[in-house]
Write a structure and sequence with these properties.
Shape: globular
Helix content: 25-40%
Order of helices and strands: EHEHEHHEHHHEHH
Number of strands: 5
Radius of gyration: 17 Å
CATH superfamily: HUPs
CATH topology: Rossmann fold
Length: 235
């Protein structure tokens, strides 16, 4: 048993699953944290449970909060999810799938649990594809949050812990992330990325997240193993 503990934010998607595998490869004892926050794509929570079991974690917490009380996002309201957007459109501006302050909220929960566990390391799967649109996926945000964490916690002030926010995917493309995961033996069949799945659990194939995922698998030369209602990206 390692003395190194890490809290890993685990959504059940490609990025967070890869980050969980990276933390495991670095010999951390894994504590996975997933959020059921009122998202319309709540099927990702079941994917996170499967991933946590498959990769192997010491403990997996599913925290239930309801961001629907605020709305403001296509993921937490009846606002339609954008479909069939081309690459330039996806990267232009902040999309309506942005959930206000989501990563700030998630990291705050992770920080609280880390302080209780005595874990100085927090891992999250933000990457270069996401931070082109989401302001809380940028390197500046990660650095600023880490600084705040070391100013706002009893453990840091007393010198018993110094918190580090790890974002090992932040400069990688989706294809590079998938290739990294395959090198670590990740099985992506349990992962889920779609913002607007069918009642049968099929990915829509045409929301921004599906399009980015499909393009990443295609570029990496790896077959995407999940089910789609339709595939908008093909070889």
């Amino acid at each position: 048993m390692t003395d190194k503990k890490a809290v890993v934010l685990l959504s059940g998607g490609v990025d967070s699953t890869t980050v969980l595998a990276i933390a495991k490869s670095e010999n951390f004892e894994l504590y996975a944290l997933t959020f059921e926050y009122g998202q319309r794509h709540a099927l990702e929570v079941e994917s996170a449970r499967t991933v946590a079991r498959t990769i192997g974690v010491r403990e997996h917490v599913v925290a239930r909060i309801d961001l629907r009380v605020f709305g403001g996002s296509a993921l937490t309201s009846d606002m339609p999810v954008p479909k069939d957007r081309v690459g330039k459109e996806i990267g232009d501006g902040i999309p309506v799938t942005y959930v206000p302050a989501r990563n700030t909220i998630f990291l705050s929960f992770a920080l609280a649990w880390s302080e209780v566990l005595g874990a100085s390391d927090i891992f999250m799967g933000v990457n270069s594809v996401d931070y082109s649109g989401y302001p809380d996926c940028r390197p500046d945000f990660i650095r600023a949050y880490e600084q705040m964490a070391n100013l706002a916690t009893k453990a840091a002030i007393e010198g018993t812990q110094k918190f580090t926010i790890h974002s090992p995917l932040i400069t990688l493309s989706k294809a590079q992330i998938i290739q990294k995961g395959r090198q670590l033996g990740v099985d992506y069949s349990a992962t889920f990325s779609c913002y607007d799945p069918s009642d049968l659990g099929e990915a829509c194939g045409c929301c921004d997240s599906c399009l980015i995922r499909q393009a990443g698998f295609l570029s990496s030369g790896v077959v995407d193993p999940i089910r789609y209602r339709s595939r908008s990206v093909s070889a």
